[in-house]
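Check out one such.
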Amino acid sequence: MFGFFKRGSKEPGRLRIEPLGVDIEVLASQSVLQAALEAGVDFPHSCKVGTCMACRSRLLSGKVKAIRDFSYVLSAEELKAGYILACQAKVAPGEEITLEVDIDSRRPHFHQMTCQGRITAQIPLTHDIVELRLQIDQPLEYAAGQYAAVRPAHIERAREYSFAAAPTPGGDRALGFFVRLTPGGQFTTWLFAESRVGQMLEVTGPGGDFWLRPAPAPLLLVAGGSGLAPVLALLEEAARAGVARDAVFLFGARTQGDLYKLDAIEAIGSRWAAPFQFLPVLSHEPPDSGWTGARGLVTEFLTASHVAQLASRHGYLCGPPPMIDAALAVLAAAGVADRDVHYDKFLDASNLSR
């Protein structure tokens, strides 16, 4: 298949991606996923650190070296069948491999592009979350739920943030993100230090495999912190399209001061073409505050008594890893099928992601 390449210890590895029929080089410094993305291949992915399994693919031929043990997230049956995580796999110099990628034919596909954007607004939403608005120099197309990587020129590594609004057909020049301050995070430390309105950022996108799959099943949406961004975009787009699926939306926060965009959620609920239930849950609200709503961890409310038809719902989860992991366990125990749960873990700098 790659016979026209001379073998040698210093030559790059080679990768064929099926069913796309694409051949690319993989450098020793790259993961399989990184090589595919940098070659412009629309390879399914989300977290890039081996937790979301969006880049799970089957090794048809050749060998890969695991950056991180695949058994951390893949089952014994999946490993036996030859599945790997593309983001955690490397190809040895001169090695030739073939991967089979499961690509949903309904998956939105947009050309990934890099452009320049100017910060037009930096709006405080909570004590540690701001709404970052950008004006970019060319329209960018994306699906609700996806993200873009952003960085100022003085920072080497970009950070990825989900689009906080539903897209406009044909692309958008005005973009919005919800950015949470991460202690020690290079980008957010710079952003939160002072107003950065007028500063330029490099923007690359779209990316991610979080999008609303068409189906008649009722919906369950769970968000925590800045994980509200992709859920809000997804709901906004669905409401605009007249999606008529019963929806229950749980939003986890620490205190009342950490709740935001409630007016936007209420507006979506008022236009929703089916029953729409919104439940904010506070985990650290002072007992004497007068809050009469739900208290505790948001995952404690993933029960049949709080969510009707729980086992038959399709889940969409966005937020910090502990919340996602707990929610996945609860939903599995409740009988929700793995194939019907989609999630995006919002990882910080310590996880080498957001």
In short: The helical segments are 32-38, 76-80, 186-193, 228-240, 262-271, 321-333.
